[in-house]
Task: structure prediction
Amino acid sequence: MWWRIYALLAKEFLNLLRDKKSRFVLIVPPLVQLFVLSYAATFDLNQMPIAIYNEDSGQAARDLIARFTGAPAFREELRITRQEQIAAALDSKRVLLVLHIGRNFSRDLLGGHQSASLQVLLDGRDSNTAQIAQGYLRSVLSRFNNDWAAGRGQAGPPAELVVRAWFNPNLESRWFIVPGIVGLLTLVVTMTVSALSVAREREQGTFDQLLVTPFTPTEILLGKAIPGLIIGVLEASLSIFFAVFWFQVPLLGSLPALYLGIVLYVFSVIGVGLMISSLSLTQQQGLLGGFLVIVPGVILSGYATPIENMPELVQHFTLINPLRYFLVIIRGVFLQGLQAADLLDQYWPLALIGLFCLSCAGWLFRKRLY
Amino acid sequence: MSGFGLRLRGLMRKEFLQVWRDPSSLAIAFAMPVFLLLLFGYGVSLDAKQVPIGLVIEQTSPAAREFAGGFVQSDYFAPRYFANLHEAEAALLARQINGIVHLQSDFARRLQANAPAPIQVILNGVDANTARLVSGYVQGVWDKWLGAHAEGNGRTANRPVQMEARIWFNSALRSRNFLVPGLIAVIMTLIGALLTALVVAREWERGTMEALISTPVTVREVLLGKLLPYYLLGMGGMLLSIGMAVFLFQVPLAGSLWVLLLAGTLFLLAALGMGLLISIAAKNQFVAGQIAIIVTFLPAFILSGFIFNIDSMPPAVQLITHLVAARYFVAILQTVFLAGDVWEVILPNALALLVMAAAFLALALWRAPRRLE
Amino acid sequence: MNQSASACALRFAAVSKAFADTGPALRDIDLALPVGGITALVGPDGAGKTTLLRLAAGLLLPDRGRIESFGLDSVTAGGQLHSLIGYMPQRFGLYEDLSVQENLQLYADLYGIAQAERQSRFADLMRMTNLAKFGERLAGRLSGGMKQKLGLACTLLNRPRLLLLDEPSVGVDPLSRRELWQIIATLVAEFGTTVLLSTAYMDEAERCQRVVLLDRGEILQQDAPAAFHALASDCSFLLSSPRTSNRALQQRLAAHADVVDSVVQSGAVRTVVRPGSRPDWSKLFPGAETVVSRPVAPRLEDAFILLLTRRRSSLADAETVCFNPHGAGAKLDGSRTPVIEVDQVDRWFGRFQAVKKLSFQVGRGEIFGLLGANGAGKTTTFRMLCGLLPASNGTLQVAGLDLRRAASQARARLGYMSQKFSLYGQLSVRQNLEFFSQAYGLHQGRRRERIDWAVGQFGLQAFLEHNSADLPLGYKQRLALACALMHEPEILFLDEPTSGIDPLARREFWARINQLAAQGVTILVTTHFMEEAEYCDRLLIMREGDILAAGTPAEIKQRSQAGGAEPVTTMEDAFIRLVEAGGEVGG
Result:
């Protein structure tokens, strides 16, 4: 049996790799996505344009402004001199926010009786960026306050926040996004390969030819699943390589734990892909079916938006999403340094999804064949 | 010129019938938009609400209770109390909570003694974005508490400078309000570029193009016969999306509908031009579909400012975004929906769309085959 | 000069055309079609027939030379030309998800036909094509023959003065084929339309006023069919022998140096000899054997083969086919043990019964033909026999086993070749051969031996590393047969194996099949090509899922004769007569 499966595997790989189009689909889109996503998909603020409206002439105000413009998150785009200019600057999206220091700033600050006020006007169209920007502003300001108080020998605030982030001390989005991309790319490639595999043979008429040979349905199913597994694992390895050596994301945990996760994850994705494929009569249907699964699969995985933020009902839906489990595994192994034993509760749902879908695919296989 | 009218009518009727009878076209034109809208309208939110957070208060005191009260009252947190730090850390590792706020046993004493009392905040940095949001919220609670604490003790605030933030346009900072308008650009890309690329490639694949060009139909008519039906379909998708956004998801529409429709027209023409160009180059559904996803759908998702802010991207990537038509449309959409008819935003972006539409359509017309080679 | 040019419906003057990827397609073509009449374009695969038609339709531009149609230059006239010419591509340009009526509407719009005139033209065409009752049906759901008729109807909406048809009758059953030809004949008679069509069927070309024979991008000969006949006069004979089977006789004849062509037909072997040669048939059988030889009138096909063989060193290397099946000892044993048994088989698709209580048997070493119009149920029957489709009722046994339930080993005993080229197009010829030999469980040494055999037998050496999708049609079909024979099956299933293949390749193919049968391989074949039915030992003609007639070709011809007064000479006449007579003959 095994060398017959070997024949099927050789055929499958030749069929995939000899064709320029399929080679293209396997290699170019994943690499483009890896780089574009890794660089573009970030929630960190970097050189955001801001406007300054300073009505105060004191040194303290200038010092405060220097703190903000000196932060890597911000860049002074515009200096405003009149109230009316604020609206124009924000409306036109020229700046994300306007820092307004009022006429009485120095007086209040030096007088020490009441807090000086720093007014911030934010463009809330992109609510996420606005919120993150507020966080950045607060921490710049709180450092300024501490230094100011210390410089005058005044007591600081009675209680101080000491914030520590585990696993990602500088809270770099990239550490979070890039491992996620590994999961995403593996999903896209494995799904495309497996969703098209049976549909392509059916469209080209080779499936009938295959069925009249002595291959058993199990052999054909394995012959379709194993190439997907190999390609998926290779694709994941390639992206992990780039994540570690190009994007410098720390890989703390055990590689075997990660690879166990990858194999189970790819296995479950192949199950879904082959299920789609055995339902499709043409490649176009296979491609579209894959697309219809990938898009919600990515959105509802916790890749960019946390699952906890979703409505309860939607959260239940995510339980059948393989990417959800894999993201926990890969981020856990990369950043938290987890071992296989810590991840058992992520492994078994993946295995279950894979087994279920693959048996469905096998059954549909027989059903649609005849 | 009745011959022209007749031919165009025939081509358009054919196109509509085909879309109507092909389940995969229907899926892209109708099912996918509604599905995406529901997903983004209900499923996805970038705002952290009711974040599970662990509170470890080693010794209760009025000040500590007051501080913890800030978390209970806040909309952003769903606090859970832990007896000791160890248990809380275990919960953090098990992803049951997103962060820990830890008040040590000497909190009240140090507060009294005016020696800075540390409040330890531990965040799970694995999800850096959430961690950053949570950190901001914790700071907000702390800030509020400081003010109240100082007031309660009859003192002025200990903060030399206090920040007063005012949010314009989307003051509640609902992420839905900016996701849903941006999604319209993605949906129209789906219909304008992906569907169009697929259907034209199908004509080549099935050999109907050969029959078409052997009739008196001109290239311009064939292109127009594709453009008009998918333009109508795309605008239909847009109206549907706007309707769902305003009536189902309660996204305010501050600007005017006609501006949206006009900008939508320009964007759709650019997307259609790209779809036609792709299909002319590919002549094969499979390749056309792949290219359309890579050069139109993914950029509309990632490089348009729909989710990720363009200004934060590296300069090289920012340059690339200028080639993405969706970028200009997303800017118009978010502005017209949330800010109103701001011409400083609308006009330059509309101009960019106009240039792209003209360029792509001209290219498509130029590259369109008049014969079989 | 001008006068003569405008009198021509189509004129090619020193036209050449080459493609970047495949090289020259046409060289110095000179052609002049007078207005009216039908011209057939014939030639082997890859001769340049489609390129010539596309050039004529203005879909391609010539590299050199001039093409004129009714005095209009194809390069400059553009749109004007399109309203004079009707062109039907090989893959009829129908929208499969539009109904018959909608397709007609679309083309009426495209041709700008006025509303008032439309209804009468639709009615005419519907009457001509017999499609009236299918107006609401989607074009994708029509049978191959109906699709072709609809394609033709769409092209005819504009009443073109020049009609270009690219292989209009490929994959069309004899009945629809005849209807198609009636439509074309009507056009020529009523409207004076000029028709240029390409075809692989020589009997169709025979009916045309002019025949243009194209080979490797050049015109070999263009003339009336009668002039072609003259080329082959005194070369055609019907041979038979009382003691030897026709198939054995044909094999001996094929090996003869002076014999250009020999096929089994009408209970004898139709033989074409080299012009001027007078072979002595008695030398073929040195014993007491006598060969009866009777001269017959030449056909276009004879001339076609004569002309082409003159340009090629030898017709084919098929004479050397040598094959040792498992049952090599069990040659024709006279008893003809049944190898395929079909008993009371039904097949339902929903509420539609595709096959009704079908029963028949096929003996070892028999060539058994399954015939029928499109939709008669022969493909369903075929797929059930291969185990690709379960029967709703009844039993099917192949080599004593039901293939649906049998272990995979049982499938190792049969070979399968489908009508559509269904090998892995992205794999090279060698990789396809390797894969199928592995699939059938051949081990290393044996595998190499069989691959060498296949490469040698089928002349695939030059193409070994080519992608099989890029092979010429005839070679694709050779490769498909080679793959089906890798494991020396006892039973061979062939589903329309020669559809769209030129007469030369068809000859070659059947020579191989005959030799396999002679060695004890059982062959089940479906075909639309009635001449091929003559090559079968026994036939089954199906109609609406039922048996219409069964028996040897001679018996079937005789039975069809009972219906009418005219003598039935060809299988095609017999088939049409039987199908039209309907249930009367069925049993």
Q: What stands out?
A: Residues 173-204 of chain A form the longest helix (32 residues). Chain A has two domains: 7-41+172-367, 48-151. Residues 7-41+172-367 of chain A form one domain.
